[in-house]
Structures are given as structure tokens and as C-alpha cells.
Write a structure and sequence with these properties.
Two copies of one chain form a homodimer. Chain A has about 270 residues and is of the alpha/beta class. Helix content of chain A is about 35%, strand content about 30%. Chain A has two domains: about 5-70, Arc Repressor Mutant, subunit A (Orthogonal Bundle); about 75-274, Rossmann fold (3-Layer(aba) Sandwich), CATH 3.40.50. In chain A, the strands form four sheets. In chain A, strands 6-5-9-10-11-12 form a six-stranded mixed sheet, with helices on both faces. A two-stranded antiparallel sheet of chain A has the order 1-2. The two termini of chain A are about 40 Å apart. In chain A, about 45% of the residues are buried. Chains A and B meet through helix 1, helix 3, strand 4, helix 6 and helix 7 of A and helix 1, helix 3, strand 4, helix 6 and helix 7 of B.
């Protein structure tokens, strides 16, 4: 097989299986090439992926080693994504009243979700997480894509315990956004004590819901090692969780003048590439 | 830029943007090459993607034309996926009683979801759909990945109308699985009358829930042009919808002898490639 074709096939297989560790043997056998030729192919594939800003290939040497593709995003692409989100979210027809914005179309747009997930995948790749966790419903597509990119299982916390989840543990928490007590519930068999989780959600205002997730994970002795949200909020200034990463921020929803102000998380580029 | 690198970059960009139509100009400018060289690159990229069973590149000529990558899956990969699902689902520890199986880990496994979505993306690519639709919660990752591959918006029908969805339309339907009346609710602004939808869900037993989706879409004069479910069920023989595509089928859950029997949808390979 010609080098042209081998490198393209390598790129395809790696991107289609992000985060997955492949033994060198897998490719040497598939393409019937020596390890030295494979190293050359990998070097070129890595150059290609980095040139497109798609991520990079990590080589792990020794027993149990191999190569894997870690998705990422470059600073220019982060900026473009933020600009696009700001433009879409500033559209005043999204105003629902009571400080709510309609965002379902954004949170379920495959391309936007893919780019947002690249940010979280790059930022949280080295946290040693065992799962990505979200609360149903609007963050599921984003959390699922992030989990896929990090080659981790996704755990979805439900609002109501469902019979199809088997035994569950539930907690009540206070949600500032809805100004009432809410419930969340996690399937016992979905998690193991003493593990680590990355929490992804679509929106965070006061952080009540995110704190609920951290707390319910804590019930299982699961440490939250990263928190990412698509959309943060300037208000209230005081949040119930710290150290969370929003992509863009709702500065103000001025219902009287029908004006929505959204800003970029300016720290994001440094946080992701720092 | 060398042909080696160009072709790899083309493969990366196409796979990262499935279903999206790119003008030839985009690549000619990016790589600073003539249209004839690009045609050569596209031919090779197409060969690469087909060799891996990942899908193929479609070229659309004339004004408004260009190229796009349509994800797919080959017969061997379908078979492998079905075998893997059968093995996982036959594990008797999944039995929850009352004919329920624990499937959340499968429905939120990124690699399984990715491969299942490739089946539906290939099968439903030519239906002229405007959205992919699912009902929360367990089918969302699969529906989101299918929508991403088809470059279509995802619409998630909620169990309860939520304020953050804006105005909604709701219907009640009878769910045979839970033996009770259930409700579903769709955001008015998520859909437009006179359009077409592909419906994706995690599981279908009698088809009550799927029929509910078809009905609520019908309220908006939206035609359902494809129905895919990860897991079908042999019982009851009589379904409330026809012409749906399961990947694997629950033949029997024998609680007394603690045995789960799952089979492959044998028609799937012909349906997808026919």
C-alpha cells in the first residue's frame, strides 16, 4: 500500500476512535509495514492533525504502549466558536422572559457541540478522569461528544429515578434558577467509589445544579476533577462552585430594552493551551 | 504542500465535518492547488475512506455544488457491532425484573453509539430529512451522533414541557412498556410545518412511544421518513408502528432461568447496503 493511502487511513482510523490506545502492531499488520515506516507515517499524521488544529497524536512507549489521538482545538478556532456563539445567543428572539434564553437548538447542533467538546477534551485530557457526567437533558449531546473524544463512559444523572436504571441514589438540592428544590438521581451501577469525574453541563447560573452533581458524586466517593459549561452567567457574582470553565458568558438579559449581552470567556484560550 | 499531507488534511477535515457540503474553492485555496489536483486528492481520499469502511465522498457538480463526506459502515463492521451488542446485552446481570434490561452504559458508550449512528446515517442519508428527532433521555447520544453525521439539527422531545423550551405542544399517549399514559412535549420553535424527520430511539417494544413521536410530529405536519432503534423486541408481535429498523432484537428475557436472548436484525446488512 502506498504511503499516501496509509497515512490517510491512519488519520481516518485515529479520528474515528479518539482517545483510544492502539498498539503499533495493529497498524503494522494492517498495512504490512515495519515499525520504522509506521513511525514515519505517525509523524506525518501528527503534522496533518496539528496543521488542521484537530489535536495531536500521543505516543506511549514500552509495554502496554502504543499511539492514540487526543482531540483538541487551536486558539483561532476557539475564538471563531466563541464569536459564533455570541452572535447566535445575542439574537433577541431567544428571550423567553424571566431571564431564560432558548438554547436547545445550539446545545443540539452537531457542529457547535463538536467544537465545544474539543475545548473540554483538550482542557480535561490529563485529569485522569474515569467518566464524564452530566444531568439530563440539554447538556447530554455535549457531554456525550466530550466523553467520546476522551474515550470515557458517559454517566447521565436523571431528574427522576427510573426503573430502567436499577438501584439509584437520589439527592435534593436548591436550584437558584428555578427557585425551588430539585431532585437528581444516579444509577448505582453506573459508577464506582474512589473514581474521578469530569462534569459537563449546558448552563450554569448560580451553580446550584452543578454543586448538586458534585455532591451526589461525593456520595459515591467520586472526586470531580473538572467542570465545563457551554454557557456561564455573570450574575449572581457569588457561585456555589468554583473552578468551572464556561465557553461564553451571559452578561445581561435586558428584557425592557430587549437586549441580550453575551461575552467570551477571555481566559479560555490560555486555560486550554496554558 | 505535499500530496501526502494534503490528502491527510482533506480526510481529517471531511470526517470532522460529516455531511457538510464544501465548495471545491475552499480546498483549492487552502492548499493552493488547481481543481485538477484537488480532483486527484478527492479520488484518493474517497478510496481511503471506503477502504476503512468509514463512508464515501459525494461530489455534486454545477452551481451550488461541491463535495461532502457521507459516513457509512461496511457489512463486516455491522456484523461485529451486532455481535458485540449481543454479547453485552446477554449478560444476565442486566436483568432488572419486569422485563427491563439495564442498557444505559451501552446507550452512552461513545464508540458503540458512533458505530450505531453510522448505520442510521448510511441508511437514512437519502430520505431528504430536515431533522433527527428523539425523546429524552437514553436515545439522545445516539440521535445526536446520527444528526451530526447527517449534518441535521437534533430535536429532543421532552417528557415534561419546560419553561426554557418556550411555547410547546404536548400529547398524551399510551406506553405499553410502562402500562400507563405518558406525555411528550415539543418546542414549537424547534420545528417547521411541512418538513421531514428521522426518528431515533434507544428501545422499542410495542412502539407506543415511537407512535407518540410520529403523532406529535404529525401535529406540525411533519412527515416521519425513517425510524431507527438500537434495540427492538420480538414481543409483542404486533407493533404500533411499522417500517422501523432495529440493530439487535430482544428475543426473550427468561427471568426464571435468568437467561437473556438477543438476536441480530439479520435484514440490517441488506437494508443498509441494498
Amino acid at each position: 500500500m502506498k504511503k499516501n493511502k496509509r497515512v490517510g487511513m491512519l488519520v481516518d482510523e485515529l479520528i474515528s476512535n479518539p482517545g483510544r490506545l492502539f498498539e503499533s502492531k495493529h497498524f503494522c499488520e494492517k498495512y504490512d509495514i515495519a515499525k520504522s515506516s509506521l513511525s514515519e507515517d505517525i509523524r506525518l499524521a501528527n503534522e496533518i492533525l496539528q496543521a488542521n488544529g484537530s489535536g495531536h497524536i500521543e505516543s506511549i512507549s514500552g509495554v502496554g504502549g502504543g499511539i492514540r489521538f487526543l482531540p483538541g482545538i487551536n486558539t483561532e478556532q476557539i475564538r471563531e466558536l466563541q464569536m459564533k456563539l455570541i452572535e447566535m445567543l445575542s439574537d433577541k428572539s431567544r428571550m423567553l422572559g424571566g431571564g431564560f434564553l432558548y438554547t436547545a437548538d445550539i446545545m443540539f447542533d452537531g457542529n457547535l457541540v463538536h467544537d465545544m467538546a474539543r475545548i473540554f477534551a483538550q482542557k480535561f485530557a490529563d485529569r485522569g478522569a474515569d467518566y464524564v457526567v452530566t444531568v439530563e437533558t440539554k447538556g447530554i449531546a455535549l457531554a456525550a461528544q466530550t466523553a467520546f473524544m476522551l474515550h470515557l463512559p458517559l454517566v447521565v444523572i436523571r431528574r427522576e429515578a427510573r426503573y430502567s436504571e436499577g438501584s439509584t441514589v437520589s439527592i435534593n438540592y436548591f436550584s437558584g434558577s428555578t427557585d425551588r428544590i430539585q431532585k437528581m438521581s444516579i444509577a448505582k451501577r453506573a459508577v464506582k467509589p474512589g473514581t474521578r469525574a469530569i462534569v459537563i453541563d449546558d448552563f450554569m447560573r448560580g451553580g446550584g445544579s452543578l454543586k448538586g452533581v458534585v455532591d451526589i458524586l461525593g456520595e459515591f466517593d467520586i472526586e470531580t476533577v473538572g467542570k465545563g459549561v457551554a454557557l456561564g452567567s455573570r450574575e449572581p457574582e457569588r457561585k456555589k462552585v468554583d473552578d468551572y470553565t464556561p465557553i461564553v458568558i451571559v452578561e445581561e438579559i435586558d428584557e425592557e430594552n430587549r437586549k441580550i449581552t453575551i461575552s467570551a470567556n477571555e481566559a479560555l484560550q490560555a486555560e486550554v493551551h496554558g
